[in-house]
Each structure stands twice: as C-alpha cells, then as structure tokens.
Amino acid sequence: MSKKAKLVIIYCVICTVVFIAAFTFFSYTNKPSPVFAAVFALIYCVFVALGSWLITKFGDASTQNSAPPKSARSVTNLLAEMKTPAAVTDTDGKFIWHNNAFSDIAEEGIHKDTTLEGLCGLTVKALLGNDTKQGAFARIGDGCFRVFGYPQSNQHGRTITTLWFDVSEEERYKTKLENERLIVAYVIIDMADNFLSGMQEKYSEAAADVTKLLKGWAEQYKGHIREYDNGKYIMMFYADCLPSMKRSGFSVLTEAKKITFGDDAVPMTLSIGIADCGGTVADKCALASSAMSFALQRGGDQVVIKNDRGSKDEFYGGLSKHDPQLTGLNARRLVLQATPLIKKAGSVLIMGHKNADFDCLASCMGIAKICMSLGKKTTILVKDNKNITRPYAMLKETPGYKDIFFDFDRDDFDMIESDSLLFIMDVNNPAIFEYPEVTNHVSSVIIIDHHRMFSSSFPFETRIQYIEPSASSASEIVAQMLEQFFPSGVLTADEANLLLAGIQLDTNSFTRDCGAGTYAAAQYLRREGADASEASSFFTLDKRAFMLELKLESTMRMYKEGYAICAADDASAATDPATAARAAETVLKLEGVSASFAVCRMNTDINGEPFYSISARSDGSVNVQLILERLGGGGHHSNAGTQLTTGKIVSVYDGPIPRPDVAFVVKLLEKAIDATPNKEE
C-alpha cells in the first residue's frame, strides 16, 4: 500500500469520528429533523471526497528511495532486497527510485536532480537502443557495469526500470587479454639480395649491426625477433606495445638508416609488415606477409600495419627514395605469368588513367602489341585529350592500331565478352581509372604500374599485380617486357619513339628517378630505332599553354623552408594538368627549393563543380607522394599529383565545405604539408 493510500484512509477515519461525534452532540441538545440529518450526511461526504482528492493530488511527492509507481509495486520488495543494483527513472533519465545496492555503487550519491547521463554518461536513447540481450555498457568511477533497461507504462506516464550488473572483473580480464594479444611482424632489409651480390663482406658487417639494432628494439618492447633468412626476420610482441611504437613513429626505421656500408655509404633501410588482428598464428602470419608485400610495393623503408577490423591500413616512414629493383629477370617472370592469361582470354581490353599522358598511352600500346601478336582481339580504352593529341593521332594512322582505340561509354558493355581480360596500365587507384565500371564486367584483371600502391586491396579480383615503384615509368616496365617477348627488330621506330617519350616524360628527360633499368630500357628502344630528338618533338607547346605556364610560375612563393607553391587565380584556367606539371618542374630548379607544388583550376568543370589540379615535384629529399596522398592523390617519391572537386574535398576536409576556389585548395595543400613528417633527418 502506498503512502498516499494510507493518508487517505487515516483522513477518512478522522472525518468519520469527528462527524459522528458532532452528530451525537446535536442529537442530545436538539431533536434533529430528517432534513438536518440529510444535510449533515451530505457535508460529511463532501469533506471526505474533497480531502481524499487533495491528498491524492498534492500529497508528498518525494522520490528519494520512495516507492515506485503502482505498476512497478508488485516487484518493489524484490528489487529492494536484491543485491543487484536497481533503479527506476523517468523517460528523461531522472532517478525516481533506487535500492540500497544501487546507493553503494553511486559514489557521489543520488540527489533530487541526478540523471542517468549525469551519473555515468549513458543516455536513455543509448540504453533502450541496445540489444536487450547485451545491455549497455557504463562506467561509474572505477566500476564497469552492463545495464539493462525495461520501459513500463502506468497512470503517471512511462518509467524505466534498470538493472546494473557489475562486469568490472570481466573488463579487467578483457583488457589483460587484449594487452597480451600476440602481434606478428615481418621485417626485411630492403634490397638485401642486391647487396649480397659482389659486396658480401661489407654487407655482412652492416647486416650484423642491423640484427643487433633489431634485437635491441625487440627487447625494448619485450618481444622476440629471429632471422629466418638473409636480411629477413620475424618478430612477435604483445599488443600493448604497439601504441608506443606508433607514438615513436617507428624510430627503428631512422636508426637503421644510420647504418651504412660500401664506399658510397649505402643506408640500410627496413620494411616492416605488422598484423594487428585476432585469429590463429597462421592468420596473423598471413596478414603480416600481406602487409610486408604492400610495404615493398609502396617502395620500402616503411611500416605498414594491417588489421581485421575494417579500419584503413596505417603507414609510417616511407621517406627514402626507391632503390632500383626492376631487372630483366623480373620482366621475364611478368611475361611468363601474363602470356597464359592472354592466350586463354576471348579478347583483351587495355585501360589507363583519366587524362592519359605519353607514359600511359605508350604502355597501353606496348601491351597491345604483345596481345595482337598472340592473335587476340585487342581494344585500347583511352580517350584522346590535349596531353596526347599528337601521338594519339599518329597511332590512329598506324597500321595495326587504326581500329583498336575505343571511346567507351555505358551503352557499350555488350562489347565485353564473358572471358575478356583487362590490363590496367600506369595507375592503381580505382578512382582515376579511365573507365572504372569496366572492372565489373571482365573475368580477369592484370595491373601493371610504377606508382606507389594506393590501397592494399581492390574492389575487384586481380590475377596479376605488378606494381614496381622503383621503375621510372610504366613505359620502362613495358619496354623490358617487349625485350623479353620479341626478338630484335620487331618494334617500329614510331612505337620505340613513343615508349621513349613515355620514359622521358616521367624522368624529366632522364634527370629524375632513373635506375639501371631505366637506361637499359632506353638502350633497348634505341636499338629498335628510337631517336631522342624525335621522341622530344612530342612535347612541343602551343603559345597559349606556354603563357599560362609562365603566369603560373610567376605566382611562386615559399611556404616553409624548401617548399615552393605556385597558384594561378581562378580566372586563369588551364587546359590540362600538364600545365601544372611543367610549372612544378621548372620551379624545382630554383635554388633552395626541395619540393614544388603547382595548383591551377582546369577550364572544364566536372558535374558542374570546379575542378583543380595539383602537381608536385621533389629533388628527392621530400616525399611529395606522402603529402598528396592526404588529398586523395598519389604517384612517386619525387613526382606526384592529385585532382580535387567538391565531392573529393568532402573526404579530406573536416568542417563545412565552401564552394572551392584556388585559395581554399592551397590551404588544404598547406595543411597536408604541415601534417606530413617528411624531410630526412
């Protein structure tokens, strides 16, 4: 029985006693008439009814540890006696009632205005929105609780009965298990196989120093490392050490580069693949191996952390220039792997990136020559644009290439056969494929590229991924493939010139990112009839493009030491991204410039939105690819680019997105520069 009900009964008894006494008194002094008795009884009834209503309406409203509403009263005694904390709140989370066990866990006590959210940060919406079997998680002080909420309805509105189960011990064990979760990492000395050739003694001394460094690093984090092959290690440590490694930026990468060997003081760089996942040891090793492969495809000298939680891969390091790794043997292996797939395919499609350049077009042409020689129907899916007007027109007039170019659109999917093979050349970022939708309609995909890996996975299955950041260009890779596939004298002079032009474009006429493979490819093309002056003739400019380039270069200003930024105003729209690329190349030649960036608006909008191009070049001391990767771009250590529209900016910018202009794009670039640890110490 509630307190209000008791008050009503007491009031009724008092009224009855008083009125009986009064009626008896009047009856002794005066003989009451029937009318008097009826009026007296009516007054009694009014007093009883009015008093009972007032008590019910305005009785004691205290909620601190008072009885819950009537609908919950049937279990009140049980809840009050339970050792499990229990409480009742209204729909706003304000406490109405709680048992003594709940008072024990509420360290600061429950007051008149105490709410669920104020006590533990848990909202009513979050409480009721959770799985009723799992409950909601809440912390009060050092205690952890699993909270279950049960809404009820009564004459006074809706209330929520909550039960609080202490899971503090369980959470402590979970934390302990997480901290002691095994992490597997693969570590290799970059280019260890190359160093072993002809420099065994000097390399062995440096490798011993690296092994000592790695053992000290493992001991620092209470881990264990073991060398299982020359320059290759496997390391295991607990998960609670990983945050500390991240905070240090994996300083072991920098320490390793202080160890050098040979007369040229070649630094010993490391690549590390880490698996931050659950599962079996075999699962961890497989994921660590995948992370290692990704680190090598991105150029080495870095750490890649892969997880099984759906989060993005994490990268640390990657500041060194890539060491040349492409060899004739690698090219031969690529040819041997690709040839059976070409022969098996019903037809072959070859696709490059949007706004194709000489390198893209030349590499597509080289693969087409291999496929056509195997008797396959071959189609090149590359659109003509201002970058490639001359070589594109030349190929369209060349026997064998006249009819293989195709301007693809959504109505042409029927040209793709069920067993078509797709080559993707000079690009590995699906966002800038010439026709990304084609990947959904082919049976096999082969990617050949020289840019650093954009992602460790693709939204489609690939049969071959040959991504070699140490190569100067896709044309270099294809030229070495052609050398392995054809006998001498098969390439025409025009084909050789176009491939040489592709190499010249990406190396800035052999002044950047050149390795032994680059010169070997150029020598092969020269033997096949390429002429450097003929290849250079593809790069002539018209007057308007020249003036736009000069105007863009004239805006050059220094941002931080060694960083130069050129930014044309929105009115000076360029016709193609090559304008920005040429400006960045020119500015890089200035004294004191380590990295140059050119920003300009293109004169063609995309879906009604302004479209901006950023080109970046470096002298090798700055990794511009890491910077532009933050803006959704990519490329090489010393040669990178990106293209921005409003839609793309949304993914790289926090806050309200204004209609972009050049000034806004430059601010984004400056933020990317500031956020990227870059220059070598």
The third-level CATH topology of the largest domain is inorganic pyrophosphatase (n-terminal core)
* Strand content range: 15-25%
Low-confidence stretches: 60-65
CATH architecture of the largest domain: Alpha-Beta Complex
Could you give the distance between the termini?
79 Å
How large is the count of helical segments?
Answer: 25
Structural class by helix and strand composition: alpha+beta
Strand order of the largest sheet: 7-8-6-11-12-13
Based on Cα principal axes, name the global outline.
elongated
For the biggest sheet, the summary is: 6 strands, mixed
**What's the CATH class label of the largest domain?**
Alpha Beta
> Radius of gyration, Cα only, in angstroms?
38 Å
* Number of domain units: 5
Average pLDDT across residues? 83
Helical amount among residues, as a percent range?
40-55%
CATH superfamily of the largest domain: inorganic pyrophosphatase (n-terminal core)
**Strand count:** 24
Q: How does this model look, in words?
A:
The protein folds into five domains: 3-58; 70-173, 2-Layer Sandwich (Beta-Lactamase), CATH 3.30.450; 183-317, 2-Layer Sandwich (Alpha-Beta Plaits), CATH 3.30.70.270; 328-539, inorganic pyrophosphatase (n-terminal core), CATH 3.90.1640.10; 543-675, Diaminopimelate Epimerase, Chain A, domain 1, CATH 3.10.310. The protein contains 25 helices and 24 strands. The N and C termini lie far apart (79 Å). Mean pLDDT is 83; it is low at 60-65.
